[in-house]
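Entry 12.
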Amino acid sequence: MTSTQKTTAVPALDWNVNALDLDAYLRRIGVSADSVSARNLAALHEAHVRSIPFENVDVLLGRPPSLELPDLTAKLVHSRRGGYCFEHGLLFAAALERLGYGVTRCVGRVGFTRPEMPETHLVLLVDVGAERFLADVGFGSGLLRPLPLADGANTEYGGWPFRLRRDGRYWLLEAPTGDPGDPGDGWRVEHGFDETPKRPVDYEVANHYVATHANSPFTRRLIVQRRDHGVSRKLLGRHYLVEYTDGRQAESTVVTPDELGDVLRSLDIVVEGADLARLREVYAGE
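Predicted 3D structure (tokens):
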């Protein structure tokens, strides 16, 4: 009798996590290495979101962001810069794996209910013992802390309500519409995803679309977002918007090209020299 040994068709993936300067990353977000736990995962997630900006400066400068970990470390850790979802997510995933967490890299679809929207958002599923969490550090107006991957999981942490809903194979992250006249149940889908693991090349393809395609929102205008407890600061094109969760009226101002460098610096983004000059030119044409 002979036996046939089955082998998996899924290749081993090398995410090059050892290229991350973990000590520098932890200093950047202001936390120390600690044991694997749900509590420590929450602290890492919150510290990352509050420390590293969401921004698309490189895209407007005509430079699609590199997703190589040494480049991510140089930009988001060693410089006063930020990035968008692929940059944040891959950096955070590497840090988590170096710290001993189990991480599955997945992809989501922003505008999930619209049939024309592509899958262009990186999300992480993080295993802590028998529990699995959604970690979403690269969604500029998203979670401060992870959500348990469970139907109906919800949070109002930091004043920002979210809930997670299961719909067949998909998980839907939802936020309140804020519209009293909403004919639905008062919630909108921010993005949807499933638990299929992705490969580095999947993010390279999506990153190329996001950074170069005319239909990508990131090629059309400057987008910077910072979220903290009770306050959100955004620079969306020419408009600087500050929103509060305590009922105060939102504040909106128009930013001129001459003011751009100082406003970016106030958002912890430093762009200088020729890059700032070019960014002002692009910004003036928006």
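Annotation: The chain has eight helices and 13 strands. The mean pLDDT is 95.
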